[in-house]
Each structure stands twice: as C-alpha cells, then as structure tokens.
Amino acid sequence: QTNSYAMSEAADLFKALQDAKDCKSLLKKHLTQERFDKLKDLKSKFGGTLADCIRSGCKNPDSGVGIYACDPDAYTTFAEVLDAVIMDYHKIEKVAHPQPSFGDVNNLGFGDLDPSGELIVSTRVRVGRSHASYGFPPVLTKEDRVNMEKASVEALQSLEGELHGQYFPLDGMTPETQQKLTADHFLFNDSDRFLKAASGYDDWPTGRGIYFNQDKTFLCWVNEEDHLRLISMQKGGNLAEVYRRLVKAIEQMEKKLTFAKKENMGYLTFCPSNLGTTMRASVHIKIPKVSQMPDFKDVCDRYNLQARGIHGEHTESVGGVYDISNKRRMGLTEFEAVTEMMRGVNEIIRLEKSA
Ligand code: CIR
C-alpha cells in the first residue's frame, strides 16, 4: 500500500516538475525521464524515497537546486541524480572531495578584511554536521528529533574556554526572546518554504534549539536544516578570528560525536549544496555602489561568490547591505573555501572603494 502510494506521489511530483516550463532548477535539469524511471521505486537504508528527495523542488519550481537527500544513504541510493546535481552546483568534473584540511590556523594568510571598519558589518563562518546514525528531516520521527537533540546538547555542554555556553530549546522560549535573537541574526525560524516542503519543520519546535557562548560569538543551531550547524561570528571583518574559533569548535565536537561522512563527498548534509566542507564563510557588507553595477552578478560568478539578502537565503538586501559568501563547498578544502571567499570580498571592497 505505502509503496504504491509513494510510487504515484513520485510520478505526480515528476509530472509537476515537467509541466513547470519556467523552472530552472538543477533538479529539473538533471532528473531525466530515464533516471526517474530507474530511481522512482528505490528505498534508501533509512526508508527514504525519491519523492522524499524531490518534493520541495517539485512543489517550488523557483528552487535553485530543488533536491534534498532524505538521509545520508540517499547519496548512494539516489547517486545517479544527486551526483549530477552535485557536480553542477559545485562546478566539479567528478565527485572527488579531498580530506578535510583547515590550514595552519596560526598562519592563515588573512586577518581583518576591512581594517577601516567602513564596509563589513559582521563576519560569520558556519559548517553543518549530521549524526551518522540518523536520517534527515523527511524520515525522522519526533522521537528521533528529541534523541538527537539530547546527544547534540551533551556534546555542546562539554565545550570549554571561549566556547563554553548554554543551550536554549525553542520549545518554551518566549516570543520576545525569539524575535530579539532572530533580528540580531543569531536564531533561525520556520519561514523557509523550500525547507518546509522538505519536511524541515515537521514536529516544530520539538527538538530544535540554540546554544551560544557568553559573547554570542560561537553558536550552534540544533535541528534546523541540519542536525547541527556550528557557527562562529562577530562584528567587523576579522575573518581570521572567526575562522580559528570555528575550527576549535569542530575539533572539540568531533571528539564527542560521530558525524556522517562519505568517501569522496566529505561531510554529509541535508542539502547537496552544503556537502563536502559544508562551509559557508560570509560577510554582511555595505556595498551600495557595487551592488548597483550591471556586472555585479558577473563579479560574484567570477569569484564563486553568492550574494543574498541579510535575512537569509532567498531574502532581499536592506539598505545596500548584502550577505556575500563562498558558493562552492565541495572539491576544495575548508581552508581553500574560506580563502576563496576572502579573495572575492577583497575584490568587492576594492571595487566599492574605487567606484
Ligand atoms: C533551493 O533549491 O533553492 C532550495 N532548496 C535551497 C537550496 C540551497 N541553496 C543554495 O544555493 N545553497
């Protein structure tokens, strides 16, 4: 019964995708009829289906990517379509991600990207991590979410020194606290329709929460899009300080938890755009002039940057302030990903100042 329902759901979704003529997603481009026929009845080790992976992208034809992994095993079971999307998104010829490498944190080759303090409002670097033994949102139960939260919080509470902090579950948090933390760019919410359609907000707010240190320079999102999002951020442009703090946190967390990884793919995340290093290094930067130039998008493309609004993906800029980050997370090391963003931001600053 379940199987035939799932089969017809996949067929319905695929038809909607084909009917969406303006759709430019990577899912639409790479889920050919042949691939669909081959994958439509398969199940991953965690019980996930192709429908679980493509639901969001078929219901939201304006998706850029359009596909999620139902669980870590989806990258094996549904490799035929996922590999094609991954290579296209990360601009790589084959799926061959290097071993993690954070570089020499005492000799990074960059420091403060904006010593004048005029343009960069804040700097943030994050990674996603997944518990190896759990699936991703489409296959999780409420109990899974609670158990994962417990394991994550135990590990977080072992963090020491500057990383030491406190966990605040979303369940029971006052609306005022929630609003304040969101406005200050610390907290996530349940307003992303792409994630929602991918079961990302099922059982909300159960199992979700945020951990942060005293200064809110190290934070961890629990059960937002990924099981864990480790975040280092601070005001201004000192990328070296932000990056070093994050590396320290990753190393301490890895002593406590086993994260989902795959040979040639690096760390596994819900969205294939985050695979590999899972690293997004970003600045909030005031660029009223550059952002109005006709070739702003070309500059971003040339330096492999992504420009977003300051309230998250798919949001608009406010007052000429943009969120600029590295677009590629796979096929390069963590150190190379952060360096790529540093180079692009340096160029954007140069253009803004000379405009
Ligand atoms: C989309 O396909 O547009 C959404 N599911 C979000 C994908 C993540 N986007 C990205 O470019 N990093």
The helix-strand sequence is HHHHHHEHEHHEEEHEEEHEEH
CATH-assigned fold name of the largest domain: Creatine Kinase, Chain A, domain 2
Distance between the termini: 63 Å
Tell me, rounded to a whole number, the average pLDDT. 95
The CATH class of the largest domain, by name, is Alpha Beta
The residue ranges in which pLDDT falls below 50 over 5 or more consecutive positions are none
Strand sequence of the main sheet, in spatial order?
2-3-4-5-1-8-10-9
Report the biggest beta sheet as strand number plus sense, adding barrel if it closes.
8 strands, antiparallel
Explain what this protein looks like in three dimensions.
- The protein has 355 residues and is α+β, with helices and mostly antiparallel strands.
- It has two domains: 2-71, Orthogonal Bundle (Transferase Creatine Kinase, Chain A, domain 1); 120-354, Glutamine synthetase/guanido kinase, catalytic domain (Creatine Kinase, Chain A, domain 2).
- It is built from twelve helices and ten strands.
- It has helices at residues 2-19, 26-30, 33-39, 50-59, 74-77, 79-90, 142-156, 175-183, 193-197, 239-254, 296-302, 334-354; strands spanning 120-129, 165-169, 209-213, 218-222, 228-235, 261-262, 266-267, 280-286, 305-308, 321-326.
- The strands form two sheets. An eight-stranded antiparallel beta sheet has the order 2-3-4-5-1-8-10-9. Strands 6-7 form a two-stranded antiparallel sheet.
- Helix 1 runs parallel beside helix 4.
- The mean pLDDT is 95.
- The structure holds citrulline.
- The site of citrulline has 10 residues, from helix 4.
- Citrulline (CIR) binds next to helix 4.
